[in-house]
Write a structure and sequence with these properties.
3 helices, globular, alpha+beta, 4 strands
Length: about 110
Amino acid sequence: MRNGPSTGPSVTWHNVRSAIARSDDAMPRIKDIPGPYWFFFYSFDCSEPVHVHVRRENRMCKFWLDPIHLAANHGFSGRELNEIRDYVETYQKQFIEAWHEHCGQHRGPDTED
């Protein structure tokens, strides 16, 4: 048979996640946050209010950072959302600083030198 058995979604997801991790300009990951969650934001989101995206396996959510509020959820349980909210509260200042550092670099030539 030319087409063998499927390698399964976990292999595909691993490949996608690896590619995303290498794409710092499109989706900068916020480093030095311990735990099982991947905190990041998209470069094209800089026109929105300050927020952070959170991913774990095939689940993702988004939290506004000021004030902290769940903006979207795709697959996390209520218990996990509470745990993620604790992370967001703990690292809020670091997330906001990372947002401004990144988005300040992606605003374009609309400021004078």
